[in-house]
Amino acid sequence: MTERLTCDVAVIGAGPAGSTTARVVAEAGVRVLLLERKAQVGIPEQCAGYVSSAIRWHVRLPEGCIAQSVDRLRTHLPDGSVHEAQVPGYTIHRDALDRHLATLAVQAGARLLIRTTARGRCDSGILAHSKGQELRIEAKAVIGADGPFSIVARWMGLPTPRLARALQYELPLRCSHRSADVYFRPAFRGGYAWLFPAGGIARVGAAALDKDGEPEDGLRQLIAELQSSGIVDRSALAFTAGHVPVSGSAGLVRDNMLLVGDAAGHTHPITGAGILNAIIAGEMAGRATATAVREGDLGLLKEYEDEWREVMGPSQEWALARRIRMDDAWGYPQEMLQAIKESWITFDEYYRG
Fold first, then answer.
1. CA 82 – CA 349 distance, rounded (Å)
2. Which of 116, 124, 242, 246 has the fewest C-beta atoms under 10 angstroms from its C-beta?
């Protein structure tokens, strides 16, 4: 038997983008359903969890969300040199952040449905499967916050974005570590490896362009070096893997559908950072969607894409150009070294025209 639900807005995915969108829509007095396919919001974690301190401009972080503050970013280049920049930020517990943002959405009036998966479209909204039951959800607007393999993006006719494959281990730290460290090496084509401290834990991972497979061998070598240096212990506590979009946004609005976060390609094309961008996009999408629904004019959804392109578009286009430069130089040692300096955000060369 199919259950029918009615709302004004259906948001698919309760990550930072989806929960933020749902909260803003609900705060405007618009009925919103927030669908999450997982049994628990935020679990399993699939994120390195390093964010700029600028996140506090958009959301209050409870103490339980912060694993550790960091005060600098150290970039390890292929020639062995290290570049250090004062970049304050946090390593966060991503599961706690996701639950916090979803809680804010529910407190604002959104209805959260866990273990609920969107299956297809219908004339009046979407079809979903929830805890063994089929749902027919009538919605005026549908928002895809469902990651890089977004079903809503497919409904919109958009191609799968270019992806980087990311792997990460958690290992015990053997000493205090106050910096976030990134490592550029030929093994991580078009990407990099990292060590982000999280209290007594080191999150050590790597990402490379998907066409080159998993960067497993290079990551194992880096972990062995960190173990030999006495920075991390030998025993891994956890492992995770996933994909990160690196090709920017192909489109954000079509008919009554919107994309936000990873589903929209809102991650930075080089760093892969996406949490703060997802929250910013969710705020923009939530405002535009609430206005469109209240005024009965879905054409106003386009205001979301216009705002994103105006505010965030220039920096994303700049980063995409830098990614092309880095990709072309990869594998040529001297040119690669210069391209990294022109492509990584802590170098002055990144900001020069």
1. 16
2. 124
Global confidence as pTM: 0.94
User: CA-to-CA distance for 22 and 36, rounded, in angstroms?
Assistant: 12
Tens digit of each residue's pLDDT (9 = 90 or more) over 151-200: 999 999 999 889 999 999 999 999 999 999 999 999 999 899 999 999 99
Q: CA 123, 303, 273, 41 torsion: positive or negative? A: negative
| HSE of 17, CA atoms in CB hemisphere, 13 A | 26
Q: Between the CA of residue 195 and those of 18, 50, 110, 170, 242, what are the distances in Å?
A: 28, 10, 37, 10, 17
Distance CA 95, CA 116 (A): 18
**SS3 per residue for the chain:** CEEEEECCEEEECCCHHHHHHHHHHHHCCCCEEEECCCCECCECCCCCCEEEHHHHHCCCCCHHHEEEEECEEEEECCCCCEEEECCCEEEECHHHHHHHHHHHHHHHCCEEECCEEEEEEECCEEEEEECCEEEEEECCEEEECCCCCCHHHHHCCCCCCCEEEEEEEEEEECCCCCEEEEECCCCCCCCEEEEEEECCEEEEEEEEEHHHCCCHHHHHHHHHHHHHCCCECCCCCEEEEEEEECCCCCCCEECCEEECHHHHCCCCCCCCCCHHHHHHHHHHHHHHHHHHHHHCCHHHHHHHHHHHHHHCHHHHHHHHHHHHHHHHHCCCHHHHHHHHHHHCCCCHHHHCC
